[in-house]
Fold:
Amino acid sequence: MTNLALSPRHDALLRLVLAAGEPVQPGALEQFLQASRPTINRALRDLLASGFLEKLGGGRSTRYVATDAARATLGALPGLLQWSPAALPLIETLRAPLGTRTPVGYESSFVESYIPNQSSLLPPQLATDLFNAGRSRDQQPAGTYAREVLEQLLIDLSWSSSRLEGNNKSLLDTKELFELGEQTGPFDEDTLMLLNHKNAIEFMVDAVPTEGITVHVIVDLQAKLMQDLLKDSRDIGSIRRRVVNIDGSVYSPSNIPTLLEETLKSIIDKVRQIRNPVEAAFFLWVNVAYLQPFADGNKRTSRLSANMPLMLHNCAPLSFLDVERTDYATAMLGVYEQRNVAAAVELFEFIYRRSIQKYSVLRASLAAPDPLRARYRQALNELMQFVVFHGRTLDDAFGQVPIDAADLAALRAIANTELDHLEQYNCARYNIARGMTQKWIDAGRPR
Structure:
């Protein structure tokens, strides 16, 4: 190991590998950093020699992962959120004792005075910069970006959103839970919260590209998030009809059901008109949380629904990773008590830039052809048809398809992953009819 003075390129490359959270191909780094392959390769060699990276595989299958030395040097990821001097006066007032802060109620003008594409909660240049950084350059159907990174997004967003609610499960616990599925019961509240997030995200990824952003979709999202977590089932999937209190705040939301319902409709109407999806995401996140339209699950619903405009425009999703609970609470208090979004803007920029970085690298890695998949493309097609169309077991199917013994274990893992993710919307690539695919799914994905 040698001592290496990290150049800006070394630093950027290393942070990208750390942010990805899994082995990364050189091609993905080349694409994201907009640098030539020889330049990327030189930086990779430097970081390998210095012990900051570890190389996995060889040839076209080469991947890189960050070492403990890299995490120690960079602090696992870029530093924690640091409030700007402009936000500090607001934050200081929010840290004052509750008894010294003036009680406030819901102010309708926060939504009513907002004119889509004229008003802006985010600084307009920031909204433009984040959109340009996060958008997909490909002309693909709405929701494509989210589907491509869905496996990782389910873990990241479910865990981070649940953690902000006080969930004690670790990120590794979440990954293992989702791999096992719902075979691991009985469930405690933390487990139910995570599984509900997963189901809600999957619902959103399916529903939003076809139905758009509607009141019904938002309400259904809350129902998915709160399933089996509330004593009164009338509070699931319906507008609130009782008083709610915000812990640690002097803010009292409106308790008038008609106002809640009409304001939620107004929020949705306005967010559908906002041309910049990043501004729309921020507007939806802040306003759903401020309105508190449901008896419970409002912050969860606001976090997930913020992804809807991003999804429709194929932008990087918003996962809320690396947010401290105290910082999140401070940002929300600024909105609740003063209708001041200064802290929320800084927190949003912080978390969305991280999301852009992580999912851009992940997506680029996924886009690079896997040599094993390319070699056994026809074999995978036959395996899928044997299992789904002909009802054979995967073991039987492998017995019918010629595969080198050295590749058997890796191809079996790929086949199982493909079967886990096979749905009506992606079955055509294996020449399997939608109806047959759904019948197989309904039977429990036998293999």
In short: The two ends are 47 Å apart (CA to CA).
